[in-house]
Amino acid sequence: MTETSPFSETYDAARNRFVDAARAAGGELQSYLNPNATGPGGESLAMDTAWFGPKDASAVLINTCGTHGAEGYAGSAAQLDWLTDGGPPSLPPGVAVLLIHAVNPYGFAWCLRGTENNVDLNRNWLDHDAPHPENALYDQVHPLLCPKRIDDKAIRRLLSEGARLISKHGQWALEDAISRGQYSHSDGFHFGGTSLEWSTETLKTIIKTELSSARQVAFIDWHTGPVGDGDLIFLCFSPPKSIGRAQAERWWGRDALSSSHVDELWGSKRPTRHGILFWGIEQAVRTHATFAGAVVEFRSARPKSNAADALRISMLERWLRFEGGLDAPEASKYLAEIREDYAPDRQSFRDNVIRNARQTYAQTLEGLATWRLSDAAD
Length: 378
Ligand SMILES: [Zn+2]
Description:
Blueprint: H1 11-24, E1 28-33, E2 46-52, E3 59-64, H2 72-84, E4 95-101, H3 105-110, H4 136-145, H5 152-169, H6 171-179, H7 198-210, E5 216-224, E6 232-235, H8 243-252, H9 254-257, H10 259-266, H11 277-285, E7 290-298, H12 307-322, H13 331-342, H14 347-377
Parallel strand pairs: 3-4, 3-5, 5-7
Antiparallel strand pairs: 1-2, 2-4, 6-7
Bound molecules: zinc ion.
């Protein structure tokens, strides 16, 4: 890594660089301290925001990183590169950008995916007073995913019992049960929580206070994870034929968003989702703005040899939280494995992240400017 690389080694470094660069670029900064947790060095954890462009802009890009904690290293680098590579001064007229750094600062700082409560924020933005989405099959697979020790015996059991469940329910049903989100096992995979997390509440506050003048809202939520080397997967959650879908297709291309293309890059048919940020923000601005965007994945992980290998990173995180502890002798090795999947230091990955992020910012901001003008002409 060179001195000028936008990739940071720690959450704290990433946070400081973001704040410094945003201030230097003339951004209006806000900081929201997480009162419930600290980082591994006792450091404060915060969601930091920076606004660029007119405060009353009708067209606004919201760009988040670190929704899934450790996945934030790439998104943070993309934001820092935009800040330091001439992004703010080249905004089109009437267009503003709201950068939101480290939606889940706890996960970012500890190199984990979930929040301080093991909650997956992309399953959390729901009405928790209403009945939660069901996921009966998860109950059966939960014990296999949560061994006391992650050893050969546990992996053999996972593979053999997993094969039995697949023969009964089908491959996709099992994958869907594991990753769609569940609301019954707080120590399990993709736990959606039983109330809104600090991160979700904070985002709601930010949207309410910052977005009241917006009429066209674009959204990019940077993530990492699926197998690849910094190339992109656009996960657009707008229904077919909606305004949001049409805008996203215009900016990023219909082929890039097509489900067959996305499934191919993802490695299987996409699972069901509930409670994601995308819909939460869309809902929060719905009274006064139209909304278009995507979760954008920088593919990052190395190829996996089998199903147990594909589940290993999530198993390690869960083991560190609920079995061995983050101070266990295995912790540094396990955390390095997690980091290698979500935030690899391969130069090819990093180069591709920055190149693809630049292109996506340019396409989105140009698209947003056109959207604003066409709405104004109506
Ligand atoms: Zn993610």
